[in-house]
Write a structure and sequence with these properties.
Elements (H helix, E strand, L loop, with lengths): L6 H17 L1 H11 L4 H29 L5 H17 L16 H15 L1 H14 L4 H17 L2 H10 L1 H20 L4 H4 L9 H32 L1
């Protein structure tokens, strides 16, 4: 029980909530598109069953992710993916990524569409939540994961429009979210067991100063690279 009273646990809780808020919007759009042709009487059922199936599937995926992240080099790969996800968050998208989502007027067909589409789009959530849970350490990683996914349910089902409006009105939220993903990527990278083979005196693991230093470097890398790519993408539009 004392594990749940540590600062590391509640820091990870805050990170998971932030990840769910930032990365749950796409999932909400998928649910809305897949269920839009259902009759009014079945639409709520489609949303709830589709979300429940997607959450269960994501728990299974994150369980495997937490296990795999203990293998050498996989934390490094996961950290690089997270850095890219954080950078993408700061670069505006032009294309509608959801155009291929097919709506159905049949309840279970819509539920299947939600689950399959959520599976395809959940890589960012899975890696980020697994990284945040691992950062807490201890034996309570799966409770953290389950808590994070429970938090994501109301965010995905009910709060997505509010979150999108907040992010439109306060772009700083998106910037801080991208930097958070960079922070988690740095923390994940520094904990990869493969580093013990290449760096001296690494058997005991990184010191707190090294861990925080790499985490800060990851956050700053996302900020600088994301802003640079966003400016580069905006330049042709401004010239036109």
């Amino acid at each position: 029980m004392e594990n749940f009273l540590t600062p590391e646990f509640w820091l990870a809780v805050g990170q998971i909530i932030m990840i769910d808020i930032l990365l749950g919007g796409d999932n909400a759009v998928v649910i809305a598109l897949a269920c839009r042709k259902l009759p009014d009487t079945q639409r709520t059922q489609g949303i709830l069953w589709g979300t429940a199936g997607a959450i269960v599937l994501r728990v299974v995926l994150i369980f495997f992710a937490l296990t795999l992240l203990n293998l050498p080099y996989l934390k490094l790969v996961g950290a690089l993916l997270l850095l890219w996800i954080g950078v993408k968050l700061l670069v505006p998208e032009d294309e509608d990524e959801h155009g291929a989502i097919q709506a159905s007027d049949k309840l279970w067909a819509a539920v299947k569409t939600v689950i399959v589409a959520d599976f395809v789009m959940s890589l960012d959530n899975v890696i980020a939540i697994a990284g945040a849970a691992q950062g807490a350490g201890g034996d309570h990683q799966m409770p953290l994961v389950i808590f994070g996914l429970l938090v994501s349910i109301p965010i995905i089902v009910w709060g997505s429009q509010l979150v999108i409006k907040l992010m439109d009105r306060f772009p700083l939220v998106i910037t801080l979210g991208g930097m958070l993903l960079g922070w988690i990527a740095g923390s994940m990278m520094i904990g990869d067991p493969a580093l013990a083979r290449w760096l001296p005196n690494w058997d005991a693991g990184p010191t707190p100063a090294q861990q925080y230093g790499v985490a800060v470097a990851g956050a700053l890398l996302v900020l600088v690279l994301g802003k640079w790519l966003a400016a580069r993408k905006a330049a042709p539009s401004a010239a036109a």
